[in-house]
Amino acid sequence: MKRRIIEDYKLAEHLKRWDDRGKGLLLDLAAYSVIAESNVAQHFPDYAYNHPLMTPQNKIYSDSTISRFIREIDDNDRVDFLNSWNATHDKNEKIYVSYDSTDKNCKAGDIEMAEYGHPKNDVGAPIINYSIAYDMTNEKPLLYESYPGSIVDVSQLKYMLEKIRGYGYEKIGFILDRGYFSKANIQFMDSCDYDFVMMVKGRASFVHGLIMEHKHMGEFESKRACSIKEGLPDLWHDG
């Protein structure tokens, strides 16, 4: 099944900068993180003994080799992969993109990206933020990124939108949670002519006033213009 997924999505072809050893090991690590629900390098050899591998001759590498291999992966490798991955997608298709982020506490040593911010689980440690944009129409991820822990979600959204546009996607809508809610973000998406569904902070002054005004007029309940556009209801299940 793992090999079938890799072949169907042509994942190895998107790793143009890598030799066969690097491609195989990276794909094995990706499969390991999904199957074992872990990214602990020291547990990978145990996994490798019980699963078919993509490395030449099914070679099993030690956890120290894996740690060294991961440290060698740089931003150019990530950017090249994402550019190649997104180049294969149909840019004329209307898609809806779900975007979300989280943070990870970091107690490691000198990691430049680890900064004090606003963690979901505050243990007094610096954090690293990371996020993913997911094509809900085709059920495929489009991009992932990490950024310093001091950057709040609401200010990161504009950069993600510009990256999506840079890949050539134009017929897109976005589904966002309340972490990205701000007047500036709404205005920016309107300026790009993007459709979007966003959970709002109802007690924000400009939102609360609009809701109460239109609720009293019955516009939400009776006006067709206030309905969600066709296609969006299919994005949810059981709700």
Q: Which stretches of 5+ consecutive residues score pLDDT under 50? A: 235-239
Q: Which shape, going by the Cα principal axes?
A: globular
- How many individual β-strands? 5
CATH fold title of the largest domain: Transposase Inhibitor Protein From Tn5, Chain A, domain 1
Largest sheet: 5 strands, mixed
**Cα radius of gyration in angstroms:** 21 Å
Average residue-wise pLDDT: 84
Helix content: 25-40%
CATH-defined architecture of the largest domain: Alpha-Beta Complex
Number of self-contained structural domains: 3
Cα-to-Cα separation, first versus last residue: 32 Å
Strand order of the largest sheet: 3-2-1-4-5
The share of residues in extended strands comes to: 15-25%
Question: What is the string of helix and strand elements?
Answer: HHHHHEEEHEHEHH
Look at the structure and give the CATH class of the largest domain.
Alpha Beta
CATH superfamily of the largest domain: Transposase Inhibitor Protein From Tn5, Chain A, domain 1
Describe what you observe in this structure.
- The structure is a single chain.
- The chain is of the alpha/beta class and 239 residues long.
- The chain has three domains: 2-73; 89-198, Transposase Inhibitor Protein From Tn5, Chain A, domain 1 (Alpha-Beta Complex), CATH 3.90.350; 202-239, no CATH class.
- It contains nine helices and five strands.
- The longest helix is centred in the N-terminal third of the chain and has 16 residues, at 20-35.
- The two termini are 32 Å apart.
- Mean pLDDT is 84; it is low at 235-239.
Could you outline the blueprint of secondary structure elements for this entry?
Blueprint: H1 2-8, H2 20-35, H3 44-49, H4 63-72, H5 75-87, E1 95-105, E2 127-135, E3 140-148, H6 153-166, E4 172-176, H7 183-191, E5 195-198, H8 205-217, H9 219-222
Parallel strand pairs: 1-4, 4-5
Antiparallel strand pairs: 1-2, 2-3
